[in-house]
Automatic annotation (TrEMBL):
Family annotation (Gene3D superfamilies): Vaccinia Virus protein VP39
UniProt keyword annotation of Acetylation present: no
Biological process terms in GO annotation: methylation; pectin metabolic process
Keywords per UniProt: Membrane, Methyltransferase, Transferase, Transmembrane, Transmembrane helix
TM stretches of this protein: 32-50
Signal peptide: none
Annotated protein name in UniProt: S-adenosyl-L-methionine-dependent methyltransferase
Recorded superkingdom: Eukaryota
GO molecular function: methyltransferase activity
Annotated source species: Trema orientale
Amino acid sequence: MSRRQVGSSIRRNGPSFPFSGALHSKSKSSPLLSVALVLVGAFLLIAYCYSGSGVFKGDKAATVSRVEGDYSCTLDVQSAIPVLKKAYGDSMRKVLHVGPDTCSVVSSMLKEDETEAWGVEPYDIEDADGNCKSLVQKGIVRVADVKFPLPYRAKSFSLVIVSDALDYLSPKYLNRTLPELARVSSDGLVIFAGYPGKQRAKLPELSKFGRPAKMRSSSWWIRFFVSTSLEENDVVAKKFDQAATKKAYQPSCQVFHLKSYH
């Protein structure tokens, strides 16, 4: 998947610092006032630089991709792995993750004890790193268009987790993809979806999904689940919320827990 790093624009007209005029002012203001203004300006500049690097940001900033600068639910999944293990228990024994950057999610899950992880990457990964290419060569990660049936038998996995993929699908394709995700799971389906108003990556995703991301409200998703005969798993959702509270995990995406088809 091609990544475009967003660089900050650099002005060539020389640096301009706030309050610098105080140093050259011909007014009769006291030296102490000038020093105070310079100190305030320096503080503001330092605060600005640190806020841009994420030092002063909260947990939600951790789910912003440092590669693209765009909102990502896949990073949310990686942070949620301990919480998911607490909520799902034995159902985390064989997991399929579907979505961009699935190699990173699968690699994180494989580090967990007694967890077998697999992945589906919706994009071409010609620019993937060595670790990701190795996972593909071993068949652990597959590159597949999620608009079509997944290359797995029914109930091949105990749990299926999807992120940063469904937001790009129209209801027409969601009617195919969502039941397919539930089909290959035996114990449940977890969906990480963006909130309305959040930014998402642009050009790379458009080349694969053919449309920009559309953030839907929780009420929209719930109605859609009902239309596809998928039930929310309230018991697991409660366990997830309790574990998230204990571990101080605050998801930046909407998280839905669904039961598998039986």
